[in-house]
Every structure is written in structure tokens, then in C-alpha cells.
Amino acid sequence: MTASAEMPQYQSHKKVWALKIKEVETTERTVDGKYDCYLDFEDDRYAPVSVGQEYHEKHKPVAGGYYVVYDGGYKSFSPADAFESGYTLIER
To answer: Is the dihedral of CA 89, 47, 67, 63 positive or negative?
Structure first.
């Protein structure tokens, strides 16, 4: 089946929490194949965060991208270009 119309467009208006990733580190796998993943951030006021194997395999975070937390607690990853073109820092 072929689509006959362009998909609808949406504009983001969500507020999110985000940190730019400096480094992605994984631990060695244990005997059961499990490992952990840590994100280290460019802003050194924030400690590295353990996001776990499931997050790492699902989102495939890379240095330079953003660790994003949505209202409600959902955690995601966004490539730098997509994040920076869609969000503006809210100055406090």
C-alpha cells in the first residue's frame, strides 16, 4: 500500500530537562551478559548518570547528543542537531 498524502506536521511545545553528553561508558558484561551504561555530561556540575543496559540498547546514546527527561519521567536520547533545532534553553 502506498501513502497518498504527506504526513501531518507537528511543532513541539514541551518543556524537557536535558544535558549534553560528553562521554558514554559501558561496564564489562557479567557472566549473565548484563552490563551498565553511564552518561558523563559536558556540564561538570552534574555527576554521571547510570542509565542501564536497556536504555543503552534502545536509544544508542553518543557523545555530543542529549540525555532528555520528559515530564512524567520518560528518559530518552536526542541527536544534537535535532535537539538544538527544536529546543531553546529556558534561562533562570
So the answer is: positive
User: What does the pLDDT look like over 12-68, one tens digit per residue?
Assistant: 888 999 999 999 999 999 989 999 999 999 999 999 999 999 999 999 999 999 999
How far, in Å, CA of 2 to CA of 43, rounded? 46
Say which residue the cell 511545545 belongs to: 13
Q: Which residues contact 21 (CB under 8 A, 6 or more apart)?
A: 39, 40, 41, 42, 61, 62, 63, 64, 65, 66, 67
Cα end-to-end distance, the chain, whole Å: 50
Residues whose CB falls within 8 Å of the CB of residue 34, separated by 6 or more in sequence, listed in order = 53
Give residue 11's pLDDT band: very low, low, confident or very high (50, 70, 90): confident
